[in-house]
Every structure is written in C-alpha cells, then in structure tokens.
C-alpha cells in the first residue's frame, strides 16, 4: 500500500505530506512551503498516483514485468518508490545503472536497453553483472562480444508501422530491418553470444494500440528465424514502451495479451514477457508549479513570464510536442487564495524565463487576470520534463525541488 511505501528504503525519513484533498491547493494551504519556496518552481510527486498506476499495470498485464525506463524521469524518490513497488528497470547508460544499483536493486532487474553503447559503459555493465542488453547492429555485437561476452542479447527490431501510430516515432534511429535479422543473428552466433529474445518500441505515446499486435507478430517471426538457423531457444519478448495511463490503457493491454496468446503462448512455454514503460508511470505522478515572475498588459492581451520554460521542464513541448494545461492559482500577499475566482478571462501568452523568444510555453490561451507571484500549475508533468531540461541562462532545471505528497482520492 501507499503507507508501506513511505517506509521503503530511499523514502524512509523523507517528508511526505498526506493531503486531505486532491492537489496542490491543499499542499500550499498546508503551509509546508515557505513564501520563498513558493517563489521557485517545484514539483509535487504523488505517491498515491504511482501506487494506483502500479496496481493498474499489475491488474491489466499481470504476467508482463515492467522495466521502468529510467530516462523518462530519474527522480531519486520516484525510482526508490518504483523499486519498492517491485518494478525492474530499463537503463540506457552507466549512470542510470549506477542509480538503480544504489537502490539495492539486483542487477538481474536491469535491462541495458540502449542499442548503441559506449565501450566503457559495456565494461561497467559487465563488472556489475548487468547481463541483458539490446542491439541492432553488427558493430554492437562485436563490442559486446569483446567486452561483455556473458551478456545475453535482445535483438531490437524495427516494426513496420503506419504513419501516425505514435506521437513520437523512434524507427528512424532504432531497430533492425527485416533483411538485417539473419545477418545479425549469425553475427551473434559467430561471436558466441546468446540472443535471448527480441525487443521493439512502437513509439512514445501510442495512438493506435493495434501497432503492438503487428510488432508482436514480427517478433515471433524472428523467434522462428532463430530456430531455423539452429540457434539456442529464445525466451524473452520485450514489448518496449509507448503506454499512456489514460482510458486507452485497458484496450492496449487487451490487444497485447491477445497478441502474445496468438503468436507465442501456446507453443512457447517458459516465455518471459517484459516491457519498458516510461511515461505510463511518470507522466501523471508529477505536477509542476511555476511562479509568475513578470507581467505585461497590451490592450486586451495579457503576457506572463514564469520561472520554468522550454529550456527547463517544459522542453517536452519541443521534443515531444506535449500539450500543456495551465491551472491558474492565485495568491494574495500573505495567504493563499486557492482559485482565481474572477469569471472574466483574457487571451494570454505565457513565456519561459530565458532570453530566447522560442521560450514560449503557452500561446493564446485563456486565463483570468493573474498577478506577479501567483502560480501556474501544470498537471501531468513527469515524463521527459525535468529529465531533459538544461541550465540555459542560469535557470537550473536540476535545482527544481520535488515534494512528496499522497492524495487519498487515488491512493489505495
Ligand atoms: N525503452 C526505450 C528503449 C526507449 O527509447 C524509450 C523511450 O524513448 C522507452 C523505453 C520508454 O518509452 P515510453 O516513455 O514511451 O514508455
């Protein structure tokens, strides 16, 4: 339960605020923050949301082990909570592996899911016993054969997908083409490496869940190819990421279960199916609050400057075309005025803090009249936000505080 989580290693002793109502308003009202802290941007990490997401995953995909994709949000408290909830981890670099091992997660709960790894990172994986990694090139086979011969491999394939299947397709950079499968399997055999299975990623924010079905069928074909080549039996299917936590998830899970059943289950007992969800766990677990640090009125137009932007947590606008929602949160000088009660709204622009005009967070949105020092609150800000922000103009994304909360409405 969420209360057991509070005592988990890595979280024990941390301040976790139980909120009697949902959300930031209650947190600010609980006076956990000093006025100066409200002037800085900050995240709320809702452990209640995370627990209910893990419950949702386990209920819908009970036999698919989630390897959380650390790149999506490597917040230490978040990683600790996921580890305590039994997640395994997809790491893309030496530093990500180090972060997970520091949580006393065993190396066999890590997949090194970066198809192209630096030699030093491969040597590190070998030294700490991370023995499962993805590949999609002959060069990678050679590197792994040389530096980590005990490593089992997952051949990452590029599923053939229609345009528009995912908001962020990954196929231009990753995955073996169908005609590359045989030479890659042969190269692995020649290097005496065990190819334990197949992985794919149908893209981030999957819009058409049937994409998983085609990819699972393609993976099965690779299992058959390995058998035809007389290679050791494969036993891992890695269905990658791309999941969102909304209502579509149930349909996605049903499609995946049916496809695994159709293409694998009956003939391949002992198959281990794993996934690499990032956004599914991170996105809705985090809420971001930014302070309005400046304002300009031009006729009926309102322009606001906030202290986070596209070079910070909101880089997801540029990289992932993420739609942001801003909830206005007015404060008076000494007390918090929970909502902007004014009915009248104005066409408003919200700028980030840097000197680049590109640093514009919202254009032509409707907001009530806001004042300097009020807050704009952005829900669902956990995926590819803080993880990939910079220090441009001296605004350090890495310095943004994260406060732990539990909202009871969803905690179970
Ligand atoms: N696995 C790999 C190899 C990835 O590159 C990514 C994202 O880029 C993920 C998993 C996580 O994807 P998502 O956040 O869409 O679930």
Automatic annotation (TrEMBL):
GO terms of molecular function: ornithine decarboxylase activity
- What pathway, per the record? Amine and polyamine biosynthesis; putrescine biosynthesis via L-ornithine pathway; putrescine from L-ornithine: step 1/1
Biological process annotations from GO:
putrescine biosynthetic process from arginine, via ornithine
Gene3D superfamilies in the record: Alanine racemase (3.20.20.10), Lyase, Ornithine Decarboxylase, Chain A, domain 1 (2.40.37.10)
Q: Which InterPro entries match?
A: Ala_racemase/Decarboxylase_C (IPR009006), De-COase2_CS (IPR022657), De-COase2_N (IPR022644), De-COase2_pyr-phos_BS (IPR022653), Orn/DAP/Arg_de-COase (IPR000183), Orn_de-COase (IPR002433), PLP-binding_barrel (IPR029066)
Tell me which cofactor or cofactors this protein depends on: pyridoxal 5'-phosphate
* Keyword Glycoprotein listed: no
Gene Ontology terms: cellular component: cytoplasm
Lineage top rank: taxon: Eukaryota
Under SUPFAM superfamilies, the record lists: Alanine racemase C-terminal domain-like, PLP-binding barrel
Q: Which Pfam families match?
A: Orn_Arg_deC_N
Q: Which residues form the Orn/DAP/Arg decarboxylase 2 N-terminal domain?
A: 48-282
Question: Which reaction is recorded as catalysed by this protein?
Answer: L-ornithine + H(+) = putrescine + CO2
Q: Which family does it belong to?
A: Belongs to the Orn/Lys/Arg decarboxylase class-II family.
Q: How does it assemble?
A: Homodimer. Only the dimer is catalytically active, as the active sites are constructed of residues from both monomers.
Q: What is this protein called?
A: ornithine decarboxylase
